[in-house]
Design goal:
Blueprint (H helix, E strand, L loop, with lengths): L18 E2 L2 H12 L7 E10 L3 H14 L5 E6 L2 E6 L5 H4 E5 L6 H14 L10 E9 L2 E9 L5 H19 L13 H12 L3 H12 L24 E6 L2 H13 L4 H17 L3 E9 L14 E9 L6 H17 L5 H8 L13 E6 L12 E5 L11 E7 L4 E7 L6 H20 L13 H8 L14 H11 L4 E5 L2 E4 H17 L7 E5 L4 H13 L2 E5 L5 H11 L3 E4 L13 E4 L4 H4 L16 E6 L9 E5 H14 L19
Parallel strand pairs: 5-6, 11-13, 17-18, 17-19, 19-20
Antiparallel strand pairs: 1-4, 2-7, 2-12, 3-4, 6-7, 8-14, 9-10, 13-14, 15-16, 21-22
Helix pairs in contact: 2-5, 8-9, 9-10, 9-12, 15-16
Length: 674
């Protein structure tokens, strides 16, 4: 941080029509106009108030607040292509404060919530008053819901503290019919903006400019976080949030750990965060944005306005390093950046001439912050009690924003994220991994990054135990036995439809049994191979089932195979029986197998029994043999047992929840094993 000499004091400006804007305001103006319907830059606060709140005194106090701080009654306009501030004499009370009395309404609580949420997330028009909204909703005689919304272009988090400090003083004085004693304001925000612009033209800034341009002389790689959805072309979604409350014990451990390592809690948490990003992306060149107060001039401490700059902290993590080494790298990065903290982020973006991508932010997509212990946004008014009122998330500014809040006892982490990119469980999992990093490092600060275990105990159990519990109680039946069960359950159901004709399960089973009995008489039993050279037809299914019922294994021979392949398969499989159709016999090569035509020879089969067969086949016996394509040499017969095909069928039925009403498109020939 630069130590400004006394000669660089900020001087009040003469009254004029237009005033310069600060560099931060210029950037927010541009961002707001890129997405005019966005509430991403709304600073919101809401609370439930119980007690005898005097609405008229509250109104008078806020009106005096606006009179006291010019920035609260400022709008913005473009003059000759330059953005200017316009300071108005006043904000009409009806525009500044909206009071709703819902005491007579049946659903007062629900109506009040709708009003508060809408007010908090309603976009501002930067050209029109007001850029601050106060909403007070009374739901019972001594119960109110209060909402305050300020556009970031006229305020920041510390501004809320100042607003409430002044409000407390004003309300307390007015309620006692006294004059409020507030220190006079020698400066206003417009004076700071003019001073900043003048300072940025000075020689002093060159060193800061050169430092930041050197840091980003090579453009950083895009942070490739594992996202759950395709990235939208334009950021537009309302943020979602995830909150984690650290235990008092862990909060104290972190503070002690930071002290022991001679650093701050902020730098310690930031180091943990950068390690998390590294482990999730495998990227060592990491840029994280942090907000930092620009109130580094003694005259600005009690000023309301946009006094926040953004620092892009770039750290290159060396390979094979320990946590302590990374902590040193991050510490050096922070200390160097603090030294040059006054250089406006928007000037850096302009100087680097980055290609604009509406789906991302310039330089970084993740933000990190730690807010201090003492917040003054509390009501210190006798007779009034308050508690925070939950607000729905505003529009997302970044892919993720990790915000830590520290009070006197513990830490709270709030992660705002783009729901268009991440599922809630993904963010919760990252939170869990962050805690694992903390636990590992506190136990062993000299551990290497690669040795840090990210998995939570629940994830380890899921990975090692749950996902390995793959045992399934499959049926110990053969393929034909499964078919016969369906025949018993639904004998008259339609089993086959071909060229306008139909076969029921009973009819199909009867014919297959006749073929099976015939084949058993011919010597077919377990492990005996039977060829089937047949067109798609009833006979194909009857033949396959008949072979399996007899105990044999079928070898499918496609009619469109080249003669050489057919000759090799018949010879290699040494089949002694071959089922076919009369029209296909002429295409068979000379072979040793006995031929049975299931169409013209059916009269020889029709006299056999239609009863189910007894066979010695077990699930470990062959069901069929499929020959490979032979692309790497000669085709090879692949032997498939009953257990394999039955397990596959059960898996598909269970996995896809199939039932008798479903149809499956089979686009491969029966000689190809799907």
């Amino acid at each position: 941080m630069i130590n400004l000499p006394q000669s660089d004091s900020i001087n009040p400006l003469e009254k004029q029509k237009y005033y310069e804007v600060s560099h931060g305001q210029r950037r927010l103006w541009i961002l707001q106009h890129i997405s005019e319907s966005s509430s991403a830059y709304n600073i919101r606060l809401a609370m439930r108030i119980n007690g005898k709140l005097d609405v008229s005194i509250l109104t008078a106090a806020f009106q005096e607040l606006v009179n006291r701080h010019e920035i609260l009654r400022t709008t913005f306009t473009s003059v000759g292509g330059n953005i200017k501030q316009v300071i108005h004499e006043q904000i009409p009370t009806e525009q500044l404060i909206i009071f709703k009395d819902l005491r007579e309404e049946k659903d007062a609580e629900l109506l009040a919530d709708d009003l508060i949420q809408d007010s908090a997330n309603l976009p501002f028009s930067l050209e029109k008053l007001p850029l601050i909204r106060v909403l007070l909703v009374q739901i019972k005689s001594e119960e109110f819901i209060f909402g305050l919304t300020v556009h970031h272009i006229i305020g920041d988090a510390q501004s809320l503290d100042i607003i409430f400090q002044d409000f407390f003083t004003l309300y307390s004085a007015y309620s006692q019919q006294k004059k409020a004693e507030l220190p006079p304001l020698t400066l206003q925000y417009k004076d700071y903006a003019a001073w900043q612009n003048q300072w940025l033209e000075s020689e002093e800034v060159r060193e800061q400019h050169e430092y930041w341009c050197e840091v980003f002389s090579e453009h950083p790689p895009i942070l490739n976080l594992p996202i759950d959805f395709p990235r939208p072309q334009v950021k537009s979604s309302q943020a979602a949030s995830h909150t984690y409350q650290f235990s008092e014990s862990l909060s104290q451990q972190l503070q002690t750990f930071a002290t022991r390592n001679q650093t701050t809690l902020f730098i310690t948490l930031l180091t943990f965060f950068k390690i998390l990003l590294y482990r999730h992306t495998d990227q060592r060149d990491l840029v994280v944005g942090i907000p930092i107060s620009a109130r580094n001039h003694p005259d600005l401490e009690n000023q309301i306005g946009f006094y926040v700059n953004t620092l892009a902290l770039r750290t290159l993590l060396p390979e094979g390093v320990t946590f302590k080494q990374v902590l040193g790298e991050v510490t050096n990065t922070c200390l160097d950046a603090y030294e040059y903290r006054d250089y406006p982020f928007d000037k850096l973006v302009s100087a680097l001439n980055l290609e604009r991508d509406l789906s991302r932010n310039p330089l970084f997509d993740v933000m990190f912050s730690l807010l201090g212990k003492e917040s003054k946004t509390v009501l210190k008014i006798p007779g009034l009690e308050h508690q925070p009122y939950p607000l729905k998330p505003r529009m997302a500014q970044f892919d993720m924003t990790w915000s830590f809040f520290e009070d006197s006892h513990n830490l709270t982490l709030v992660i705002e994220y783009e729901p268009d990119l991440f599922l809630p469980e993904t963010i919760a999992r990252m939170n869990g991994h962050f805690l694992q990093i903390i636990e590992s490092v506190i136990q062993n600060p000299d551990c290497k990054l690669s040795e840090i275990n990210l998995l939570t105990p629940e994830e380890q159990h899921q990975l090692l135990i749950e996902w390995n519990q793959t045992e399934v109680a499959y049926s110990q039946q053969c393929l034909h036995q499964l078919f016969e069960e369906k025949v018993r359950d639904n004998p008259e159901a339609i089993a086959l439809i071909f060229e306008g004709e139909k076969l029921t399960y009973r009819e199909l089973n009867n014919r297959a049994n006749q073929v099976g009995h015939y084949l058993q008489e011919k010597g077919v039993t377990s492990e005996v191979l039977v060829g089937i050279f047949i067109e798609r037809s009833f006979e194909m299914i009857i033949g396959i089932l008949g072979i399996i019922k007899a105990g044999g294994a079928y070898v499918p021979l496609a009619p469109n195979y080249p003669p050489e392949r057919l000759d090799y398969m018949i010879s290699d499989s040494a089949i002694s029986l071959l089922l076919t159709q009369q029209s296909l016999v002429q295409f068979l090569p000379e072979n040793q197998a006995e031929i049975l035509c299931l169409d013209t020879d059916w009269s020889r089969i029709a006299n056999y029994s239609q009863e189910n067969l007894a066979s010695p086949v077990t699930p470990e016996n062959l069901a069929y043999v499929i020959y490979t394509s032979g692309s790497t040499g000669k085709p090879k017969g692949v032997m498939n047992i009953h257990r394999g095909i039955c397990n596959t069928l059960k898996y598909n039925i269970d996995n896809y929840n199939l039932n008798s009403e479903d149809c499956i498109l089979q686009i491969t020939p029966f000689s190809f094993d799907v």
